[in-house]
Structure formats: structure tokens, C-alpha cells
């Protein structure tokens, strides 16, 4: 059992789930971390959980179909439905006949969620050439048709399906869409002539998920700069991640809001392939936490592990990701600051400054620490160092430009700052000395009233929350296991009820 799940010797790629009595089946794309994993690279990974935190690795399912040249390459992303004691596993078909260029939706069925037989009539969906992509148009040599997501139709018997494809258009940004389809038996599908989502600001949208929260329907899609457009995200801090749109109907048309970012990061090592599921009556989110090759900040982004669960919620019409207490199933112990040490030693370090003028201006009481520096920044080291942790505090800024946490503190004065930044208008994660590493996200940061800042670090996988809303998530390697501290920049900040919990 791992804090972030991945099968032995494998990276996790796009994940999707099927809820059954007693738990959840996880299926995912995978690729080998080392030679030992190469045996199952062309299969879908499979695991099972009863709580979305602890996953039991099971034998891979559904490898290549060597008998067909349109299905003899590794299956790609799909979805799974449990209906009438039968599992319906949808996947993206690719074949050597077109070197993977021509995609279609395939189906496999099984009685237990662990073994599957391909439907002999595959494929079950090919884009309708009257409305959508062919192998000749709009991208010659490529017929996009992948990532089918299936939900129970709320307004009639049967199911709705959503898949990534393209439509004819003069500009590439106008071609990438999510198409809709309907089936009354999960085998035969009728495609709708108009797309359910046509963003027109993305080089590609894929891995769609559609779900209802309250009285509104939402669609989420993976996109980013690597897909060929600078215009995909409304927050200029984000270049890779997931956008969302909203509708009154599951059939759309879905419209983007002023802020279209659900979750993302500046670097390509951002959350990948978000997947919604309903579990224990709540809306949860799972995705791939990406890593970097060589386990170094300068490494090329690769695939990674399944994240711990997050909650999906609404704020008005906006869709947001929230902290899930399920991660606390992994808490090993809670650590309390040593207030005597802070009063007698930490204030005299003037940590992070080359030219020191101790003591720093700090008032330290049980469960309430005040830091003040009217012209510069001050850091109060907590004399606690951890690799995996939950670190949180209620912070009130009184005229401060920024306040927050310091992480990954080392003996050579290296560290990272997590800034609730009123000047920037959001949260920034920045390397203290050189600013060579930077992640940020715009969000309202209160001044004069309290806000709760929380960092969840599972080794390199780093999540930043503001009032329990997950703003950004990324991989960060330098200084793993370093010290923790508090800081203020140009003003006064109060830190109340600091909590530090080590994760197993």
C-alpha cells in the first residue's frame, strides 16, 4: 500500500473508476518505470479500493488484440460502467494499419470487473463523417476518437457518452471538440450532430468528464500549451492542466466561465487526466500526479502515480476542488511547535538573510504567533523537518504584502516560500534565493481577516490550498525532508492554530 498508488515497476497514466458494491475498481493507462515493468506496458492497469486511499494492485486487464490491425496497439483511455451485474469497459482502439492515426471506441465486457472479453462487433463508435473527424480531415492522417466517458442519462432510459474528436474548421483551435452520443444498451450508439463542448481556444481538449453538482452540469477536459495554444487558460499563471465549462443540460452546449481553470500548473508536471466519481454520497476527484525524469526539478515531465482523493464542489456557478480529509488516513503523528525554543532561539536566527540583525520582531504565544517586518521579510524556523506532511495555519495579514510558510529549509539557507500574496492577488510558491522555481494561481487573498493556508506534501507531490480550496498541484524535488517555518513580508501577520502532521 503506497501513499500515492502506482503498480510495481509502473507509472500510472490516465485513470478511471467503476464503483461496485463493496468498493471501487481502478483502471488506468500505464508505462514501465524499468525493465521489469515492460511485460505489461501494453495492458490497462487494475487496482481495487474500499476507501479511495489504500489501493490493492490486481492483475492488468485488456492488452493488445493482435488478431486485428485496428486494435493491435496499446488500448488508450476510456471509462467503465457496472450495470446488471456486468462490467462494460470502454477503451480507445488504435492499430498498426494506420500507425495509430485512426482511433475508435471499443468495448469489452466481464462479470467481475477483473477479466474482460472484447465485443466482437467493435468498434462501437466511429466519428460520424457528416459532422466529425475523418482520416483525411481536419488533420490529415489522424482521426481523433478517444476517451469515451459514459454516464447514466438523467432524462430517459439509457446512457450518454462523451468523446474527444474534431470537426471541420479553417483554424485548428476551432476543430477540437467533445462530441455526444446516446445508447439504450451500452453497445449501439447514436451520435449527436452538434458537439456538446466546442471551446475554440484550445489546440486539443481530451479526457472529458461530465457530471452534475446541484442543479448544474459540468464538463472537464485536459488541455495545455503542449497541445498547441497559448489561449487555453484564463489564468496566465497556468500553462498545463484541466479546464471546465458549465451547462443547464447534460447535452450542453457547455460554456466557459470568466475563470475556466479547474486545476493546473505552470510546468507540465501538473495534474493529469482528472476523473470524477461519486463515492459514499460525495463527489470525488482522482488524477495522475506527474513526476519528473531522474527525480529532479530540471527533469523532463513523465507520468507518475494516482493522487489521493479530492472533493469537487461549487461556489456559485464555479467548480472548485476542495481538500478531502481522507488523506488524514495516512497521518502518522501530529507535531506541536516548541514555543520555548521559538522564543529563546528561533527569533535570534534571522533565518534566510546574509546580513543578520537579530532578533526578528516576533510575539510568540501558545497557538498564536505574530511576525512583523515593515520593510523586508522575516522567517521564523519551527525546528521541524519533514518529507511528507500536512502544514496549515489560519493567517491574518495586517497591511502585509504577503505571509505564509517556508518549506524545504536547509543548512545552506535554501528554502521555498508559499506566499498568500495580496500584491499578486493569489498564492505563489517560489524558491527563496533564486526564484528559479515558481508556481502560482490567482485567487482572492483576504487582508485584515483570516484565511487558512494549507500545504499537503507527499514527498515531491505538493498541493497548495487556500481556505481548503486546492489552487495548484505540482512536483517539487529540491530540499525534500527540509525544515518548516513561518514568514511575513512588509507588514504584520498573525498565525493562529498552526498544525503540522506527518504523513506515513
SSE class: mainly beta
Question: How would you state the average pLDDT, rounded?
Answer: 96
Shape: elongated
Helix percentage: under 10%
In terms of per-residue confidence, which ranges show pLDDT below 50 for 5 or more consecutive residues? none
E-strand count: 33
Q: What percent strand?
A: over 45%
Q: Radius of gyration over alpha carbons?
A: 24 Å
Largest sheet: 12 strands, antiparallel
Enumerate how many helices there are, as a single number.
1
Termini, distance in Å?
Answer: 11 Å
What this model shows, in words?
- Strands 22, 23, 24, 25, 26, 27, 28, 29, 30, 31, 32 and 33 form a twelve-stranded antiparallel beta sheet that branches. Strands 17, 18, 19, 20 and 21 form a five-stranded antiparallel beta sheet that branches. A four-stranded antiparallel beta sheet has the order 1-2-3-4, with no helix packed on it.
- The chain has one helix at 339-344; strands at 10-20, 23-32, 44-49, 55-61, 76-83, 86-93, 104-110, 117-118, 146-152, 159-166, 176-183, 190-191, 206-213, 216-224, 240-247, 261-265, 272-279, 282-292, 301-306, 310-315, 318-322, 331-335, 361-365, 368-385, 389-398, 402-409, 416-421, 426-431, 438-442, 451-458, 461-466, 469-475, 483-503.
- The protein is built from one helix and 33 strands.
- The radius of gyration is 24 Å and the shape is elongated.
- With 504 residues, it is mainly β.
- A hairpin with a 2-residue loop joins strand 20 and strand 21.
What tags apply to this protein structure?
504 residues; mainly beta; twelve-stranded antiparallel β-sheet; five-stranded antiparallel β-sheet
Amino acid at each position: 500500500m503506497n501513499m500515492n498508488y502506482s503498480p510495481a515497476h509502473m507509472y500510472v497514466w490516465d485513470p478511471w473508476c467503476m464503483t461496485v458494491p463493496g468498493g471501487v475498481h481502478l483502471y488506468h493507462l500505464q508505462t514501465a518505470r524499468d525493465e521489469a515493468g515492460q511485460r505489461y506496458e501494453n495492458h490497462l492497469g487494475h487496482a481495487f479500493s474500499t476507501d479511495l486511499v489504500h489501493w490493492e494492485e490486481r492483475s492488468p486487464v485488456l492488452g493488445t488484440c493482435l488478431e486485428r490491425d485496428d486494435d493491435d496497439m496499446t488500448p488508450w483511455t476510456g471509462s467503465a460502467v457496472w450495470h446488471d451485474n456486468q462490467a462494460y469497459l470502454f477503451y480507445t482502439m488504435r492499430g498498426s494499419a494506420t500507425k495509430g492515426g485512426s482511433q475508435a471506441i471499443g468495448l469489452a465486457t466481464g462479470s467481475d470487473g477483473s477479466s474482460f472479453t472484447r465485443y466482437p462487433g467493435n468498434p462501437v463508435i466511429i466519428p460520424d463523417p457528416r459532422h466529425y473527424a475523418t482520416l483525411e480531415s481536419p488533420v490529415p492522417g489522424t482521426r481523433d476518437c478517444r476517451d469515451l466517458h459514459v454516464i447514466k442519462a438523467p432524462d430517459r432510459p439509457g446512457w450518454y457518452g462523451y468523446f474527444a474528436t474534431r470537426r471541420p474548421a479553417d483554424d485548428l483551435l476551432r476543430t477540437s471538440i467533445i462530441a455526444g452520443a446516446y445508447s439504450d444498451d451500452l453497445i449501439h450508439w447514436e451520435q449527436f450532430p452538434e458537439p456538446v463542448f466546442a471551446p475554440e481556444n484550445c489546440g486539443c481538449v481530451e479526457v472529458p468528464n461530465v457530471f452534475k453538482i446541484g442543479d448544474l452540469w459540468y464538463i472537464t477536459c485536459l488541455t495545455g500549451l503542449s497541445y498547441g495554444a497559448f489561449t487555453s487558460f484564463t489564468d496566465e499563471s497556468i500553462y498545463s492542466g484541466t479546464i471546465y465549462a458549465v451547462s443547464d443540460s447534460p447535452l450542453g452546449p457547455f460554456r466557459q466561465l470568466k475563470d475556466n481553470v479547474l486545476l493546473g500548473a505552470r510546468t507540465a508536471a501538473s495534474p493529469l487526466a482528472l476523473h470524477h466519481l461519486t463515492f459514499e454520497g460525495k463527489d470525488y476527484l482522482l488524477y495522475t500526479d506527474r513526476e519528473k525524469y531522474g527525480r529532479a526539478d530540471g527533469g523532463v515531465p513523465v507520468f507518475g502515480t494516482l493522487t489521493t482523493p479530492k472533493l469537487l464542489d461549487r461556489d456559485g456557478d464555479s467548480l472548485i476542488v476542495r481538500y478531502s480529509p481522507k488523506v488524514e488516513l495516512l497521518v502518522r503523528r501530529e507535531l506541536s511547535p516548541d514555543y520555548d525554543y521559538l522564543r529563546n532561539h528561533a527569533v535570534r536566527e534571522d533565518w534566510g538573510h546574509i546580513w543578520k540583525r537579530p532578533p526578528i520582531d516576533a510575539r510568540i504565544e501558545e497557538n498564536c504567533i505574530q511576525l512583523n517586518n515593515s520593510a523586508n521579510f522575516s522567517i521564523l524556523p519551527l525546528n521541524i523537518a519533514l518529507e511528507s506532511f500536512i502544514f496549515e495555519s489560519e493567517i491574518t495579514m495586517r497591511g502585509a504584502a504577503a505571509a505564509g510558510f517556508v518549506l524545504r529549509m536547509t543548512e545552506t539557507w535554501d528554502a521555498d516560500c508559499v506566499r498568500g500574496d495580496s500584491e499578486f492577488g493569489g498564492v505563489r510558491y517560489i524558491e527563496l534565493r533564486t526564484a528559479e522555481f515558481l508556481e502560482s494561481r490567482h485567487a482572492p487573498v483576504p487582508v485584515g481577516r483570516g484565511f487558512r493556508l494549507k500545504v499537503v506534501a507527499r514527498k515531491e507531490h505538493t498541493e497548495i490550498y487556500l481556505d481548503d480550496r486546492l489552487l495548484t498541484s505540482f512536483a517539487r524535488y529540491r530540499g525534500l525532508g527540509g525544515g518548516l517555518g513561518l514568514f511575513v513580508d512588509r507588514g504584520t501577520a498573525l498565525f493562529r492554530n498552526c498544525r503540522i502532521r506527518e504523513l506515513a
